[in-house]
Design goal:
Amino acid/polyamine transporter I; mainly alpha; two-stranded antiparallel sheet; disordered C terminus; globular; transmembrane helix; 4 strands; two-stranded antiparallel ribbon; disordered N terminus
Length: about 550
């Protein structure tokens, strides 16, 4: 296996269902710098976090957890079912997976050259006159994306817990108080994953590694049990891959409805862009972060297909699994296909196991984004958020973790006020992450890729241009698709307000820049010397 995708052998043993050729063939467009010299930008920040906190395998596991296809595709299943069903869900995931992988390559070569959270990359890539503002928007959009994505993951898990309770005993959950119950469970989940980050951070390395095993074995168990206990007729493979029916979406254009169905996969796969925030806690971030992002996307893509195809072979009629306010479609798929409450309960528990890993990882990345921005005085009370207790064994920014938990608590309250408003903030998570990823990639293109000279890991030859342009086009396309209502006719409650929230975010970021950023925000501290030149290790 090529060096770029070398992963721990213990992990590789559990990925035997993914042929080595899948990794090696995909990664042939990747090249480790072969001109004899590597030039990696070095930064002058005091090293407060533990540089050996996360290993290569842990980064892959964390990325896999953030993109967990089991949790992500399960909790957003209604979007794909509304907009075509099997063809949209499976083929949409395949298309989105490949495009997301290209985005991870574009972002990976930037992080390889500038191993820091993305606002630092933008500052170093942008022309001098716009360094601060490019850095500001990149950092704040990434931070808001982290916060809202973290909230999205934990709230989706809470909805799944409520679905599990409701399908077991429908009388236990009163529909009138459904949102209240969901918010209560959400608060409980946020508190648990937050406390793990605060008081059990020494176990996060192990948690990230176990994450991969859990998700892979969950996929295997779910697929096998569904096929074994399915009590009806099996769908044909042709049906499971090509059946398309978008009548429930209300859209007259099948092609447009198919693309809207990409929302399901984009909510799932965009988490890879949250990984650069961990650059301060990896021994070789210039290599480990790019490798982790790219490899995690590939594993998520292949594992997601293995998870989805058997479900499409036993899926009930769409009309019987939509529009149940208490129970998520994936839970109804399990109960209607197996007719066994015990088996269905076990299958949902396997999905909920992913929630722990994804929730812990999202709090980790979000708090590190807060920490990184605070070092450059991007937030009021920055000294507090950037504080790391030097006497503590766990070198974590505890106040950044608490702030991240507090933001989730506040956003969770929106669900009590308006479901549409809350969903708008969740949709804005993808818009923020896409736009924050897009800015440094566009800056690379503007520099005619010269800014990446000496990057230890980058795309080979002229393919870099193609990958960069496709990445930008895909990110812009995704932002458009995420802003479209998944179903028409649109009502005040079903309207997609994600773009409106995103615009409010932009306005808020702009006001904060002029009232705070221009007086306090600083560009990342870079070594005044020439970037350290290292002997290349070759391909």
């Amino acid at each position: 296996m090529p060096e770029y995708v070398r992963i721990p052998q213990s992990l590789r043993d559990n990925l035997k269902f993914i042929p080595d050729s899948v990794f090696s063939n995909l990664q042939t467009i990747i090249n480790e710098e072969d001109d004899g010299v590597e030039e990696v930008e070095r930064f002058l920040y005091e090293q407060q976090l533990d540089r050996s906190f996360l290993s290569k395998g842990s980064i892959i596991g964390l990325g896999f957890g953030l993109m967990s296809p089991v949790l992500g595709m399960s909790t957003t299943m209604s979007i794909g079912l509304l907009n075509g069903g099997p063809l949209t869900i499976v083929m949409g995931f395949l298309i989105c997976g490949f495009a997301t992988w290209l985005c991870s390559l574009s972002l990976g070569e930037i992080v390889s050259k500038f191993p820091i959270e993305l606002h630092g990359s933008s500052a170093l890539l942008a022309p001098k006159k716009v360094k601060l503002i490019c850095s500001w928007y990149t950092g704040w959009l990434m931070l808001l994306g982290n916060w809202t994505m973290s909230t999205s993951i934990t709230f989706a898990g809470a909805q799944l817990v409520i679905s599990l309770i409701a399908v077991t005993n429908d009388n236990l959950i009163n529909e009138e108080h459904l949102v209240l119950y969901t918010v209560f469970v959400f608060y409980l989940i946020v508190t648990i994953v937050g406390m793990v980050n605060l008081y059990f951070s020494r176990f996060i390395e192990s948690v990230n590694k176990v994450c991969v095993y859990w998700i892979l074995y969950a996929i295997i168990f779910i697929d096998i049990l569904l096929l074994l206990f399915h009590s009806g007729h099996y769908r044909s493979l042709k049906y499971g891959l090509t059946h398309f029916d978008n009548t429930f979406s209300g859209y007259s254009s099948s092609a447009f409805s198919f693309m809207i169905g990409f929302q399901q996969s984009n909510f799932t796969l965009q988490g890879f862009s949250m990984l650069p925030a961990l650059a301060d806690e990896v021994k070789e971030p210039e290599r480990d972060i790019p490798r982790g992002m790219s490899t995690a996307v590939i594993i998520s893509g292949v594992a997601g297909l293995v998870f989805l195809i058997p479900i499409m072979l036993i899926i009930p009629e769409t009309s019987t699994i939509l529009n149940n306010p208490k129970v998520m479609p994936i839970v109804l798929i399990f109960t209607q296909s197996t007719h066994s409450m015990f088996v269905s309960f076990f299958l949902v528990l396997m999905i909920l196991g992913n929630l722990l890993f994804s929730g812990i990882g999202s709090i980790t990345t979000s708090s590190r984004a807060v920490y990184s921005m605070s070092r450059d005085k991007a937030l009021p009370y920055s000294d507090l958020w950037a504080y790391v207790d030097p006497a503590s064994q766990s070198k974590v920014p505890k106040y950044s973790i608490l702030l991240t938990m507090g933001i989730s608590y506040i956003l969770g309250l929106l669900a009590l006020v308006s479901t549409a408003a809350f969903n708008a903030f969740i949709g804005a998570a993808v818009l923020c992450l896409c736009s924050a990823t897009c800015i440094p990639i566009i800056l690379v293109v503007i520099s005619r890729r010269r800014a990446l000279r000496g990057s230890p890991i980058k795309v080979r030859y002229r393919l870099g241009w193609i990958v960069n342009f496709v990445s930008v086009a895909w990110l812009v396309f995704t932002m458009f698709i995420i802003s479209v209502p998944p179903q028409v006719p649109v009502t005040s409650t079903s309207m997609n307000y994600a773009s409106a929230v995103f615009v409010l975010f932009i306005i808020g970021i702009t006001f904060l820049y002029y009232f705070w950023g221009t007086h306090n925000f600083k560009a990342p501290l870079v070594s005044e010397d020439k970037p350290i030149e290292l002997e290349s290790s070759g391909s």
